[in-house]
Amino acid sequence: MKKFLVLSLLLALSGCSFFSKGEVKSEEAQVEDTVTEEVTLPDPPSILRSEEQSEPATEPEVEPAQEPATEPELEPAQEPATEPEVEPAQEPATEPEVEPAQEPATEPEVEPAQEPATEPEVEPATEPEVEPAQEPVEQVLSPVSFNLKASNFAYSQSSLTVKEGQEVTINLDITEGFHDIKIDGVVQTQASGEGTSQVAKFTAPKKGTYEFYCSVGSHRSMGMVGTLIVE
Length: 231
Known about the structure:
Shape: rod-shaped
Helix content: 10-25%
CATH class of the domain at 144-230: Mainly Beta
Strand content: 15-25%
Radius of gyration: 94 Å
Number of helices: 3
Order of helices and strands: HHHEEEEEEEEE
Number of strands: 9
Largest sheet: 5 strands, mixed
CATH topology of the domain at 144-230: Immunoglobulin-like
Strand order of the largest sheet: 3-9-8-5-6
Distance between the termini: 198 Å
Structural class: alpha+beta
């Protein structure tokens, strides 16, 4: 039992990491001295009898090995002072951009000379269309008649008016003397005496003034004349 105690003490002492080797050796020497002093065992038979008679000896309380002294906590090494941040070297000032040399001003485009203005084509003056003269519409003229009396050296009417192309009839009654009626180029009756009648028919000639007269002897010169007006 005591050897067991010695061995446990040795094991406990060997587990302490903070004792130096010199201190361990001195403690071992002290333990051995105490062991040698205490181990004076009596004879085996007496030991056995004493153990049987007496109560089992209480094992001495072995004080638990002291825990090794805790090493002082080492403060963590201070981090090296941080170097001041070195500002990056400023980039060299950029040279101002050199604007490319301006191209020489382009000469203004010379517009081609304008062609002379073409004279406007003068259209030949168109002669106004002359409408052909409308042919006169032939008017159907109703025939006209006159009643005359012939006496010595005069007619009862000195003027007769007709239209061109109109059919004309002159009824001549001889009331005195011997007479007729004549229009040059148009008509002439046969002379007759007193109490007779004569009829002169013709178509009125072109517009104008014509003379009718008595062609017997010198009656015309004596004033036996009249006027035929054709319109």
